[in-house]
Amino acid sequence: MPATNVGTSEDLLAELSGWVRLETPTTDGAAVNRLMDVAEAGLAGAGATITRIPGRDGYGDNLIARTPGEGKPVLVAGHLDTVWSHATLETMPYLVQGKKAHGPGIYDMKAGSFLAFHAVRSILQQGIVTPRPIVLLLTPDEEVGSPTSRWLIEQEAAQAATVLIPEPAGGGGACVTARKGVGRFVLRVEGRGSHAGTSFQDGASAIVELSHQIIGLHRMVNVERGITLNAAPIWGGSRPNVIAPDAGCEIDLRVNSVTDGVLMEERLLGLTAKTPGCRVIVEGGMNRPPYTESPAISALYGKAQAIAQQVGLALPKQHRGGGSDGNFSAALGVPTLDGLGCPGAGAHASHEHILWGHLAQRAALLAGLLETLD
User: Which of 54, 107, 153, 323 is the most buried (most CB within 10 A)?
Assistant: First the structure.
């Protein structure tokens, strides 16, 4: 059993509720920083060495908390931002109903980031000696692809022995040993506008061309190979009596392998128009590399399974289609275990919730890993 006393699920939920009631939309750096202040105070008060890197481009700060020790650390990385806008709490309040605790961002991933914070704080407060120092990294922009934190995640991961990611647990409490790579693109069509009644033949509809392109994107999908594409949102045109001079869409790409990521990026960036008078422009690229299960990750999962058994948890594993900051560390070849947060459901949806009774066991799992990974 882990030596760290992590407390009860009731106590953990009481503190977590304060995190959920602080709304932290990615696009409001000041709001994210208010929660970053809370985390910094708790970790500094427990004796962690703090480095805070000011945010840029409208995003919040990054926070690094280090514990004493020698050698390569164990890196724990979580984000404090959510997809939810300000005032979401008015229509989607923090609420406990039986086994479920609801609230914007509670599942993705305030519960997980809080558990990591609590485990590290408890280890420091209780004087638990860990085989390796711990680095806890809290970031402000994961929900939009980590544009200002990726460099820091990769920098810290490259110096780490192991990386733990407390993103939400999957069904049955599953952790994550692989994720798809993610690409994001914007496709724009330049057409030729004209009057839809008097000058129909003079026009070149960007919307017609966009329709051809979206059908072509769908034909690139290969579910068996793990290649999926989704076009959304889409836009175009201005009025029913105007041949649309412009249209476009965003494209979400998911792949299982680096090779397929390179191939699909080349195909998307090389798209050309099929409609005379139109021009197609595609911008973007792979945002998160694939995260594949290596022998080292399998061994790390085995260690986590053993600790989970000690604390009374089942810990199945899964390969997940969604990306996370774990993609960055795994792509560097650093053993990475993801999905170590709290089980629940409804990420990015109005029914978002955690199964709060699992909080203490999941905190004990994290503490147990930090106490034993060498």
Answer: 107
- Give the largest Cα separation in the chain, rounded: 81
Burial 165-196 (b: 16+ CB within 10 A, else e): bbbbbbeebbbbbbbbbbbbbebbbbbbbbee
Considering the entire predicted model, what is its pTM? 0.92
Here the tokens at position 267 are: 């195909």
Query: Taking a C-beta distance cutoff of 8 angstroms, is the pair 339, 169 a contact?
Result: yes
Amino acid residing at 310? Q
- C-alpha to C-alpha distance for 100 and 104, rounded to whole angstroms: 13
Tens-digit pLDDT profile for residues 114-156: 999 999 999 999 999 999 999 999 999 999 999 999 999 999 9
Q: Is 170 left (phi over 0), alpha (psi -120 to 50) or beta?
A: beta
H/E run at residue 95 = strand 95-97
- Integer-rounded Cα Rg, in Å, for the chain is 23
Q: What is the pLDDT of residue 1?
A: 86
Looking at residue 356, what DSSP letter applies? Answer: G
Average pLDDT in the chain: 97
pLDDT in tens, 55-88: 999 999 999 999 999 999 999 999 999 999 999 9
Q: Give the whole-angstrom CA distance, residue 374 versus residue 370.
A: 9
